[in-house]
């Protein structure tokens, strides 16, 4: 996956709008505190939308048995994951809720984050290829048996 150009632009526009409001509606210490908070927020948003955050999902792989693995972080550690029922598919975005067994991850996928065919296949898999077998709970890391 690549960073979403649309998401980065929307984040920048929203932060600039908030800074303009802060400059026009506040004065003194409140204005400076607001601008400092907005600069921290903009920096964090730029890292998250650029997939540079430690919990960013960089790749989604689905095997022939329709089980998913997500690759997280800069070193792209692979985790077998289950897509939870709270995931949402809209016309222009996928809001995926993953369970890796040790943690739950929310992940937004926009069409400009992948090529058209990969986005279409992921969308079809999310919408139609979830079986009862996909939703079985993963064994925890402390269990003695290997994962299938």
From TrEMBL:
It comes from the Bacteria. It holds the Pfam family Cpta_toxin. This is Transcriptional regulator.
């Amino acid at each position: 996956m690549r960073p979403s150009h649309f998401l980065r632009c929307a984040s920048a526009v929203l932060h600039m709008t908030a800074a303009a409001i802060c400059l026009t509606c506040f004065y003194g210490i409140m204005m400076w505190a607001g601008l400092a908070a907005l600069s921290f927020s903009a920096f964090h948003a730029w890292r998250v939308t650029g997939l540079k955050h430690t919990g960013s999902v960089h790749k989604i792989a689905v095997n022939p048995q329709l089980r998913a693995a997500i690759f997280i972080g800069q070193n792209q550690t692979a985790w077998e994951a289950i897509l939870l029922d709270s995931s949402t598919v809209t016309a222009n975005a996928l809001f995926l809720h993953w369970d890796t067994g040790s943690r739950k991850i929310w992940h937004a996928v926009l069409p400009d984050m992948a090529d058209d065919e990969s986005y279409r296949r992921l969308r079809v898999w999310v919408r139609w290829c979830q079986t009862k077998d996909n939703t079985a709970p993963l064994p925890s890391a402390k269990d003695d048996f290997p994962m299938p």
